Amino acid sequence: MKINSITRGRWILLCMAYLIISPFCTYALDYSCVLHTPISDHLNVQQSKISGIITDNLGNPLVGIHVMVQAQKQGVVTNFDGTYTVTANPKDTLVVSGLGFKTQTIAINNRQVINIQLQEDITQLDTVTLNAGYYTVKDKERTGNISRISSKDIEKQPVSNPLAALQGRVSGVEITQTSGVPGAGFNIKIRGQNSIRANGNDPLYVIDGVPYASETLGDRQTSGSIIPLSGVSPLNNINPTDIESIEILKDADATAIYGSRGANGVVLITTKKGKVGTSSFKLNVSTGFGNVARRLDVLSTQDYINMREEAYANDGIATLPFNAYDINGTWDTNRNTDWQKELFGKTAYLTNVQGTFSGGSEQTQFLLSGNYNKQTTVLPGDSDNDKITVHSNLNHQSKDKKLAIQFSAYYTSNINNLPASDLVREALTLAPNAPDLYNDDGSLNWENSTWNNPLRNLEGKYLAQSTTLISNATINYTLNKGLKLVTSLGYTESDLQELRTVPSTTLNPAYGLGSDISSAIHNNADRTSWIIEPQLHGTFHLGKTKIESLVGFTFQEQKSHRLSQFAFGFTNNNFIENIAAASSLFVLGDTQTQYRYHALFSRINLNHQGKYILNLTGRRDGSSRFGDDKKFADFGAVGAAWIFSNESFIESALPFLSFGKIRASYGTSGNDQIGDYQYLDTYNFGSSPYQNIIGLQPTRLYNPNFSWESNKKLEFSMELGFLQDRIFISSSYYRNKSSNQLVGIPLPGTTGFNFLNANLNATVENKGWEFELNTTNIASKNIRWTTSINLTLPKNKLLEFPDLEGSTYANQLVIGQPLNIIKVYQYTGVNPQTGLYEFTDFNEDSTISAPDDKQVIKDLNPKYFGGINNHFSYKKFSLDVLFQFTKQLGVHFLGIPGTMGSQTNDVLQRWQNVGDQTSVQRYTSGLNFEGLVAYSNYTQSDAVIGDSSYLRLKTLALSYQISKKTSKGIGCDLFLRAHNLLTITSYNGLDPETRSSSTIPPLRFISLGTQLTF
């Protein structure tokens, strides 16, 4: 019999639902027939109080260690001084356990006082539980690729964005800071770029179970001149010191349960929660300073003057023109200013204060924290970023442990006050003998209109005020043994108000212009989202097989609104921030969007004898971003693992092997990161009225077949532990293929549209290797030394692109090459006869022109990247050293040799006489056409593409424990932390990470602080 009404994907989901639900029904029937045994006779024996203290191998008291009476299945948690008290029978047994320590089972044997010393678990594979999103899994038993960093790693870095804490610590995750300006964001790629579209590669961020939109609410017209690329990053509103852990989900097995949202990986952020124990208050105070770590090596004034004079001589100009102010006597030729130091060489200061109050009983735990973070900039003037964060969490469990409720709320208020423009470009284009910045009376010096004073940019400002609310409530109810109902409720709200002012005072007063030409751009945007996810979890045993399953639904809605306005002409510059005071007002954009997302997801996990593990996940997604016939899609994955070290023949044959696992996964996920209403006919209001009426103009064509991108992921991995896991190695091979790309297909000009949003049968492949090595080098009573190394070897390739040559991507993509390439001219050197740069004329038409002569392809993706972290501890001292490294190419910096403006010392190697063999063409004042054309081609050639690899001392953290918290005392820790302390590179620019010399590079920070525990 043929059934055509149900797709193959739906049959898979129905089968999985049957596998999940049917055991529940069978188990419910079996459970009702179980005969409960009577209460043990041990309860009739007289009980007494057992007490003691629990310490580590150094004798330090341990807080939060769980002490359970085995027969009673009840226990307590140790206090701050490591003490505990339980009531038990003389013949009972204590089970003592704690995260990071080996579990001990101790017989009471009629003792009243039992002091216990716990031993550290070197790798913690059996104790570390990973957050996999809708479920948790032991690190030892996971079938997917999940990387984790804990609060201990995060807190050691003086950073304000959570992504900064991941750099150099996680394999397969490439993270690049876009700028050193406060509020700037990070680019993150988890296992490469999957989508041809630059804005379709962001991972899914989930904070305490609530999806968090990472798209900026900012307007490029407002923030673009000070914050590069995407503008203000919403992730800056997440305080890193409030984070308990960050998990990165990479492969299909780990991400498929998130369906379309997991195509580019998932970043799970879990905030801190209250713990069982005596209430405590922690106060963390730190202060520090930062500066730009690298500057360009530029010409001194004398070398600069010689260059300029030689340039005019080369151009055959004997009489210096009037505007050659730097050498015609207008400016002081003995003056020497390092403009990099003047314009972005100030010291930035960092202040961070955090207080946390937490504690609770076995039933109820709470946490309340507040944080104040302030960071100034390296730019002149008074500009800073102020952030206030409040975080609360409450957990409660009923006495019968059937009902558990968790509530968390996270609120941030951020004010970012910056100059309207970055001053880096100004600093790199000014002559070293340019005039003073100020007149004697303190006013800006315009030097008789001979220059544009760079500090004019400080007259305008950029102001961003944002608030973020993230709230979540989770309700767990145990229906019976092994069956649990979970409901997660989430609500987020983000608001951003941006202002950029350009007053008339940014212009030379000699022009006589007043506030009637002043302008301001206002951008007000907000975004709200709610999500409801009911779930049913089941855990039961079938013989020696443990079965875990879940089924759930997702209902999510997101609404966004943005109003951007341009105000022009004010009666007075004092009113420039008041939009009502403008004489003219233009609406740049007024948009309202709504996004709805529904899904059904399920999982079943089979664990046989702790050796053979199978994990199946499936999800059916529905998105409002596609047409009626394409709204739904099915995604799923299968993951399997074999813990072969648990096999008896392995244990006897390889006694030095303490752990061994082989795992593999394959599955699909999708992508709907295209924005809202992209498949519909859309219209915009016209800019010019007709008969006082604003008309409508079409902006997009309807395409009902517009549907999901598809990403197929494959992975193989092996994990090995040696010598009781003192040496632990893991390696992974991955291959992701992303097809059905969401791109714009070019249309003929006669249609009135440039392109049609559609799916293109183009395929992008990402594959590579990931390696991780963790070793415990020394583990004695007083000394501990551990090392962690990760290395990623990625490869990105465009496999297919139909009719690429006829598309708008013809000049930027090549089949068989990575997406992140640049097509350039082939540089052949400086002509010894003419002294000009020369290039290969591939089409032999005697002219160097694009695109025919741009035949050289340079790959800007990293060849490999990773990190090396060492942790040392000696008694109460602790030291962490993290190095980050990347092998890559980048665009190097070089100005036009001979023109007015700062030049690096490289230009001294210029051509001077016929026959010279040099790397720099002859100087030109800018009036020689051939010289300018040659330089322009040079900047588009492989000559400026060079090694941008670097080794960076990312984190250096030293701490000393003055005193440990006891029941009557105060705990005190001192710490010194450094970030971006040292960089080794051959890159000829400000920073090899950003590979840019047009914005402030990531700053080097050093901070000193203390943590007090009351």
Query: Helicity, in percent?
Result: under 10%
Please count the beta strands (DSSP E, at least 2 residues each).
48
Describe the main β-sheet briefly.
Answer: 22 strands, antiparallel, barrel
Fill in the CATH topology of the domain at 129-271: Ferric Hydroxamate Uptake Protein, Chain A, domain 1
Shape descriptor reads globular
Structural class: mainly beta
CATH class of the domain at 129-271: Mainly Beta
| Total of DSSP H or I helical runs spanning 4+ residues | 9
Radius of gyration: 32 Å
Note the beta-strand portion: over 45%
Query: Uncertain regions: pLDDT < 50 for 5+ in a row?
Result: 1-44
CATH superfamily of the domain at 129-271: TonB-dependent receptor, plug domain
Name of the CATH architecture of the domain at 129-271: Beta Complex
How far is it from the N-terminal to the C-terminal residue, by CA?
Answer: 73 Å
What is the typical, i.e. mean, pLDDT?
88
